[in-house]
Design brief:
Strands 1, 2, 3, 4, 5, 6, 7, 8 and 9 form a 9-stranded mixed β-sheet that branches. The protein is globular and about 65 Å long. It has 345 residues and is α/β, with parallel strands linked by helices. The protein contains 11 helices and 9 strands.
């Protein structure tokens, strides 16, 4: 099956609008992220205007959901307004690239996930370097992945799923939210762990992929609990396992991949905040402190719990912990992707 044309068209339109809006904002015409009185080299009275947090994925997706959870409490701590802007395209690299090139004044922030650590192995010409083009603000959360299928898909358990896809590899469809997306990476790990190569169906975002799964137009996929918990609880999809060492509190009956017989499939999707390289350290620290306040907010904790995740400890919501995590993950995923033989350009 192929993603429906209406989803492709809608996603392209959103991406174009997002990029145009962000470029206008960064040039000072948009009113949300342009150069302010503080300038790019000093913290001054930061913040004295709205802050834009760019999400390089579709609205309503897991990363967008996490961003909107923490936006209000961060804004309250900073004493300003935070505008969330979706700039889609190329597995998150379009939005990340826009932020890397933005003025380093703290008014343009990036929320990215594990894809920041996989992009260098997937894309030949990124236009930015994760460790050099950004200042790290702090980690936000690590979200478990779930393996889910259309509700009438024949396999009953994860072991049944492995047996079934091996026997039907030429006709089973594995959906994902696009090359380099978390669902794509988890799908690669599934195929490696199961010892099978499947027909992958890339979409332009998690929303349309999951919609088609619920509608029975594709067979199964791997996606974050922030995006699947509602459908699992409502019985709209068939769930096989969660890809973390421990069960998720919001989905207590869902076994881990280890319990379900596929221990090599272990992955969680970490999210973090970035600003352009050269942003004053005083600004980075203000953003990091606001992040810590947001992650300690009981409403945020409760919202994340409902979606099968939790805020990172305060010591991980720091530039230092964030940089260490990114360095480690860059090494890990470069090998996984090379072994899988995946390359975008």
């Amino acid at each position: 099956m192929r993603p429906t044309s209406r989803y492709r068209a809608a996603a392209r339109m959103i991406a174009v609008i997002g990029v145009v809006s962000l470029v206008a904002a960064c040039s000072g015409n948009g009113g949300t992220t342009g150069a302010g009185a503080t300038g790019g080299g000093e913290a001054g009275g930061y913040p004295d205007q709205n802050i834009t947090v760019v999400v390089p994925f579709s609205a309503g997706g897991p990363t967008d959901t996490v961003t909107r959870m923490i936006a209000d409490p961060m804004a309250a701590k900073l004493g300003t307004k935070i505008v969330v802007q979706n700039v889609e395209g190329a597995g998150g690299t379009v939005g990340a690239g826009e932020v890397a090139r933005a003025k380093p004044d703290g008014y343009t922030v990036l929320m990215h996930h594990i894809g920041m650590s996989t992009a260098p192995a997937l894309y030949k010409d990124l236009g930015y370097k994760p460790l050099e083009s950004f200042e790290m603000v702090g980690l936000v959360t690590e979200v478990p992945m779930t393996i889910v299928a259309r509700k009438d898909f024949p396999p009953a358990t994860l072991q049944d799923l492995v047996t079934y896809v091996k026997a039907n590899a030429n006709k089973v469809t594995l959906a994902n939210a696009g090359i380099g997306a978390a669902s794509h990476l988890c799908g690669l790990l599934f195929q490696t762990a199961a010892g099978v190569k499947l027909q992958e169906v890339p979409y332009e975002g998690t929303g349309p992929a999951l919609t088609d799964l619920v509608g029975g137009q594709v067979d199964f996929m791997c996606d974050q609990t922030t995006n699947t918990s509602g459908q699992i609880s409502a019985g709209e999809v068939k769930a096989y396992a969660v890809t973390t060492p421990e069960r998720v509190k919001s989905l207590p009956d869902l076994p881990t991949t280890t319990e379900a017989g596929l221990p090599k499939l272990q992955v969680s999707v970490w999210h973090a905040l970035y600003v352009p390289a050269g942003t004053p350290q005083e600004v980075v620290q203000k953003l990091s402190e606001a992040l810590k306040v947001a992650l300690a907010d009981q409403k945020v904790i409760d919202q994340m719990a409902k979606l099968g995740t939790a805020p990172v400890p305060a010591e991980d919501a720091t530039p230092q912990a964030h940089r260490a995590k990114l360095q480690e993950q860059l090494g890990t995923w470069s090998k996984v992707i090379a072994d899988a033989g995946v390359k975008v350009s």
